Amino acid sequence: MPVVGFAGDGAFGIAVTELTAIGREEWPPVTMVVFRNYQWGAEKRNSTLWYEDNFVGTELDDGVSYAGIARACGLQGVQAKTMEELTTALNTAVVDQMQNGKTTLIEALINQELGEPFRRDAMKKPVVVAGIDPADMRKQ
Ligand SMILES: Cc1ncc(C[n+]2csc(CCOP(=O)(O)OP(=O)(O)O)c2C)c(N)n1
Ligand SMILES: [Mg+2]
């Protein structure tokens, strides 16, 4: 059974050091797909909801290649720019994983459309808790 992982580029960036460890010979190979929209999309969406369409600190460096980092770690790293390329890359990666013992990271370039927050309830205005008014806290 092939093992295929999926992550956003922001989430993957937080744990990107894992690439330095997963290629060990004594460990089984895996396939990883990173959805590359060059942003912390969920955080950006929260910011635009909270702060009248403003956002800050949510753009990722477009000079960084996760496929390149994977190759530097001795793994296979490829970019997929279309659905067809992604299908081909995934098929190749799974065959390489199952038959050739190789780990592949696929960097799937996707659009920057922002979805609805999955925790919209977490984005309610701050409320007074235990007698502390959040407006007063901000003044300090
Ligand atoms: C360990 C950890 N740190 C921070 C967060 C807060 N957080 C939620 S979504 C998100 C950004 C995710 O960006 P990405 O993985 O690129 O997904 P996208 O929304 O762009 O598809 C962050 C930092 C978290 N969930 N977990
Ligand atoms: Mg992202």
Walkthrough of the structure:
The protein has 140 residues and is an alpha/beta fold. It has one domain: Rossmann fold (3-Layer(aba) Sandwich). The protein is 33% helix and 16% strand. It contains five helices and four strands; from the N terminus they run E-H-E-H-H-E-H-E-H. It has helices at residues 9-14, 41-50, 66-72, 83-99, 134-139, and strands at 4-8, 31-36, 76-80, 104-109. Strands 1-2-4-3 form a four-stranded parallel β-sheet. The model has no long low-confidence stretch (mean pLDDT 91). It binds thiamine diphosphate and magnesium ion (MG). Residues 8-10, 37, 39-41 line the site of magnesium ion.
Q: Encode the helix/strand succession as letters.
A: EHEHHEHEH
What is the CATH H-level superfamily?
Thiamin diphosphate (ThDP)-binding fold, Pyr/PP domains
CATH architecture: 3-Layer(aba) Sandwich
Beta strand count? 4
The CATH topology, please?
Rossmann fold
Number of helices: 5
Quickly name the level 1 CATH class: Alpha Beta
Spell out the key features of this protein:
140 residues; alpha/beta; Rossmann fold; 4-stranded parallel beta sheet; 5 helices; 4 strands; 33% helix; binds thiamine diphosphate; binds magnesium ion
